[in-house]
Design goal:
By secondary structure, the protein is an alpha/beta fold. The protein has three domains: 3-164, P-loop containing nucleotide triphosphate hydrolases (Rossmann fold, 3-Layer(aba) Sandwich); 177-272, Helix Hairpins (Orthogonal Bundle); 281-476 and 490-657, no CATH class. The chain has helices at 14-22, 66-77, 92-104, 116-121, 128-135, 151-164, 177-188, 193-200, 204-208, 212-228, 233-252, 259-273, 279-322, 327-345, 348-364, 366-380, 388-393, 398-403, 411-420, 430-440, 445-471, 491-509, 512-525, 538-550, 558-566, 573-582, 587-593, 600-612, 617-627, 629-657; strands spanning 3-8, 27-30, 37-45, 48-54, 82-88, 109-114, 125-126, 139-142, 253-254. Helix 24 crosses helix 25.
Length: 658
């Protein structure tokens, strides 16, 4: 089976192209010898099945991050028949740098100029034949991935290139006589031109690939070269590559009306959004608006689902009883299965609209600016802004957020960012927030939820500062990132993203959460003959033993302890467990009964604990996968300690003030 590889910069639309080619079917495994996930699928070229491998989104092949190293090693060491380089056409110069590096490896490429509709709006056109001839591409195709435009042309170009087996040779950027002499000598020794350039740039991984004899010989030649140049060879090589890119665009890009007009608009808006005085308050205002919108828009849908689930549970109980079903079976299906999972599903609208609003902010280009804004703030604390990008992803789910730390340039950044991400409030915690905020803080739900998200960010920032000074004193790194252009969010992309995230929530409700709720029901029903959910049930005994630990935080009753324990499986289970134990699983009844167990102050303390303690077993598992058992255990103990200490502080200080 032939192998086609997708490569491209982050946010170039590579995943959209991958889904369009494969029909959305993918398999996830691990890259050989690493913990990084490998995403691949298949598609048909004529009657032949072709393997499509999706490389991580990268800016280059210089191995500054784990993702770049993985991508470079795959292209150098694996059997690759064709590389499809996905280019963000609205940012050609930056995106073409990766294409130049891949062609310097000698690999055949098809170039997908994605988001071409944005260039057309500016009156731009490109001569594909001239472009392909200069860069040595097998094919050049203009696409608009999120609208499905150009995908058929891209498939045809791939088919032609795979069938023709083109001998494209190397792209030879002119690096001047001295460097070219070095490269020719390296090639005579059997060294790939790209690797020889990486050796000149001083990359340790590239040097390690060479035999000691070749390394020693080339090292002497490199030292002679360094004497010829007053500045760094890596800078010189990058300048030459960008010089080639400018010449390429000068020859192939035509009829550009006014690219500077768009840049001027972006710069004008950025002066306000990224302003050092206005930027952070504006970001907080935007996020407050998001949470306000979530509650206002979602509430009618929540009420409708709640009424439907309540009616269905009541009908099912009556129906089963009329058939003479055993009481234990009726309790299992209504209290355990339907009501337990139903108490979670009523929050589906909140999850959907939160993801919808975040997706709009991301697709518009604003979230990248938010990371830039927070970089300035975090530098004042002696930190850097790189951590904030995965932190933002953590608002959706902590698991992909931790996986996103692979793009960070050094181990210190990865470890610190991974350890603080569990404090970012993922969407799984939202059902707990919504329930308690609506019961104990009616009319101020958005303010309470907004405050919890801010608290999570604050704890993460302070933790990063402490870890940075204790574990990695004296090390520092800067945030280098690209600001994507402002775009009108694509309704199709935004809705698809929101649905995927919401579907994951629903899928968990009928799998992991269902299993946890059933286990809660079972333990609450045993030993035989005990009253359901009573203190002398197995569940009651377990909770009673743990309850004293939470007494200083104001919720020292066994049901709360059990809910927090089962919340480790998935945070949504906290609501399902409380519903099962306190109200027979009925969410409407749970709202009525909660004030008999919690005061407003202890409810707030409980929310703080829910926010900060272990996020879920999946998060701990991915920390173990990325960093090892040691850091997974440290993260678990640290989050439990921070959650308990702050929830106790909230309750004890609150008792003094109120």
């Amino acid at each position: 089976m032939k192998t086609v590889v997708l490569a491209g910069n982050p946010n170039a639309g590579k995943t959209t192209i991958f889904n369009a080619l494969t029909g959305g079917e993918e398999q996830v495994g691990n890259w050989p010898g690493t913990t990084v996930e490998l995403v691949e699928g298949t598609f048909l070229v004529g009657e032949e099945k072709v393997r499509l491998v999706d490389l991580p989104g990268i800016y280059g092949l210089s191995a500054f991050s784990l993702d770049e190293k993985i991508a470079r090693d795959f292209l150098l060491k694996e059997e690759v028949d064709l590389v499809v380089v996905v280019i963000d056409a609205s940012n050609l110069e930056r995106n073409l740098y990766l294409l130049v590096q891949i062609r310097e490896m000698g690999l055949p490429v098809v170039v997908a100029l994605n988001m071409w509709d944005e260039m057309e709006k500016l009156g731009a056109d490109l001569d594909e034949r001239v472009f392909a001839r200069i860069v040595g591409a097998c094919g050049v195709v203009k696409t608009v991935g999120n609208q499905g435009k150009g995908i058929d042309d891209l498939k045809r170009a791939i088919a032609v290139c795979l069938e023709a087996h083109p001998s494209v040779g190397l792209l030879r950027v002119d690096y001047g006589p001295e460097v070219e002499s070095f490269l020719q000598e390296a090639e005579r020794m059997g060294l790939n031109r790209f690797l020889a350039l990486a050796f000149l740039e001083g990359e340790e991984d590239a040097i390690a690939m060479l035999s000691p004899e070749v390394r020693e010989h080339l090292a002497r030649a490199r030292e002679d070269l360094r004497g010829e140049y007053s500045h760094n060879l890596a800078v010189f090589i990058a300048e030459r590559r960008y010089g080639f890119i400018k010449a390429l665009l000068r020859e192939s890009l035509r009829r550009v009306v006014d690219l500077n007009q768009r840049l001027a608009f972006t710069e004008y808006v950025d002066r306000v959004i990224t302003n050092r005085i206005v930027g952070i308050p504006l970001f907080l205002l935007v996020m407050y608006g998001v949470f306000t919108g979530v509650f206002k828009v979602a509430q009618p849908f929540v009420d409708a689902i709640e009424s439907a689930m309540s009616a269905l549970s009541g009908w099912l109980g009556v129906f089963l009883s009329s058939l003479g079903a055993p009481e234990l079976l009726v309790s299992f299906l209504t209290d355990g299965v339907l009501d337990g999972v139903g108490s979670i599903l009523v929050f589906v609208p909140n999850i959907f609209f939160l993801n919808l609003f975040i997706s709009v902010l991301e697709d518009s280009g604003y979230l990248a600016r938010a990371a830039f804004i927070m970089d300035k703030f975090m530098h004042r604390l002696g930190l850097h802004g790189k951590s904030f990008i995965p932190m933002l992803i953590g608002f959706g789910c902590n698991v992909p957020a931790i996986m996103a730390t692979r793009t960070l340039s050094n181990e210190k950044d990865r470890i610190i960012t991974t350890l603080i991400i569990p404090f970012m409030s993922c969407s799984a915690r939202l059902p707990v927030y919504v329930l308690f905020a609506s019961v104990f803080f009616p009319g101020k739900e958005n303010l309470v939820v907004f405050g919890l998200y801010l608290l999570g960010i604050g704890v993460g920032v302070v933790s990063a500062m402490v870890l940075n000074r204790i574990l990695f004193k004296g090390q520092d790194s800067l945030l280098i990132m690209e600001m994507p252009p402002y775009r009108v969010p694509s309704a199709r992309v935004v809705l698809k993203f929101s649905w995927i995230r919401t579907y994951e929530f629903i899928r968990k409700a009928w799998t992991v959460i269902l299993a946890a709720v059933i286990l809660v029901w079972l333990l609450a029903s045993l030993p035989p003959g005990v009253e359901y959910g009573a203190k002398d049930s197995l569940l009651g005994r377990m909770g009673t033993a743990m309850a004293p630990v939470f007494s200083p935080a104001g919720f020292g009753f066994w049901q709360a302890a059990v809910a927090l324990v089962f919340g480790v499986v998935a945070k949504e289970v906290v609501v399902g467990t409380l519903g099962t134990l306190l109200s027979g699983g009925k969410e409407s009844a749970l709202r009525t009964v909660l004030p008999f167990y919690f005061s407003r102050l202890s409810a707030l303390s409980f929310l703080v604990m829910t926010l900060l303690y272990i996020p879920c077993v999946a998060t701990i598992a991915v920390i173990k996968k990325e960093l090892g058992w040691r850091w997974a255990v440290i993260s678990t103990l640290y989050t439990i300690a921070v959650g308990w200490i702050l929830s106790v502080l909230v309750y004890q200080v609150g008792r003094i003030w109120f």
